[in-house]
Amino acid sequence: MHEFVLQAVGDDQQQFFRTVHARTLNNLNHSYLLPVDHDEIQVSYPPSLATIFLDLGTGSGTWAIDIADEFPRAEVIAVDLAPIQPRQVPPNCTQVSLFSSLPSPDRHSHPNLTRRFELCDIDQWSIPYPDSHFDFIHARSIHIGIHNYPRFLHEIARLLRPGGLVLLVEPTLDPSPPPPSLPPMPGWASLWETYRACLRRQLIDVTVPERLADLLAATAAFENIIVRDGNIPVGFWPQDPHLLTVGQLQWMDYELFLPALRPFFLCSGLPPSTVDRLVRDAQHDLYHPSYQPSTLIHIAYASKCY
């Protein structure tokens, strides 16, 4: 059993980062090889009665900050691998660093442990909070860093109070497939096929996004499981102004994501020339698509059984 100590993130944050192939990565989990630098920050509902929120894999912290603003009397705790979140946050948003050593202190007896995010590798250790502590847990776009997603869901069930809600959001790893009558875009398809193959070699289950409901049900800890799939346009082709905005944002997300894969591919053993070709060809298809691309975001939410 691992023990933990809480340590505030100070001005010297270099210990939390490492540089790999000219991109900044976290220094807590060496299996998670996507960058946590300035570009990552740019990538980037619950019930009003919820009082304690947990945001797992908060990234830039935007979701946690928005929730803290929306529900000023709630406590919002956000966890990530690297301290890339803003320092100025709502007073009900928590930001602390977690490291293996000592037991976690009682938050309610330490009122100074507020206005902070928390650092923790949720793939390696049990998440260091008491049983039945949270009313709402949010986890978005993190399954590529979780080697045992069923265990992760059991841990979420442990942390939720009975009746508490979990919201899972995972994008497909096979985005923008062609219409039935058209061939795939070769550069785009090749990059995503390679990405999935490299994740499999790291023992990551690439089918998780499509199986969120089944995985929740398999825990026998959740009920009222609801699944929604969001069909998201990619690019500038929608005529509806709202969908056009969504498409532009998703296109920008992919534009940042493609070069961000470079450290992951290189650490997976691919030659630099192959990586450069994969990224370049996928960028070509993103900039000059042969059809109107779209992608799927898989959303599942459920309540913990009483």
The N- and C-terminal alpha carbons lie at a distance of 27 Å
The named CATH superfamily of the domain at 30-95 and 115-188 and 205-234 and 294-304: Vaccinia Virus protein VP39
Mean pLDDT: 84
Q: How many distinct beta strands? A: 12
Contiguous runs where pLDDT drops below 50 for at least 5 residues: 44-50, 96-115
Query: How large, in whole angstroms, is the Cα Rg?
Result: 20 Å
The CATH topology label of the domain at 30-95 and 115-188 and 205-234 and 294-304 is Rossmann fold
Provide the helix percentage.
25-40%
CATH architecture of the domain at 30-95 and 115-188 and 205-234 and 294-304: 3-Layer(aba) Sandwich
- How large is the count of helical segments? 8
User: Class of the domain at 30-95 and 115-188 and 205-234 and 294-304 in CATH?
Assistant: Alpha Beta
Shape: globular
Order of helices and strands: EEEHEHEEEEEHEHHEHHHE
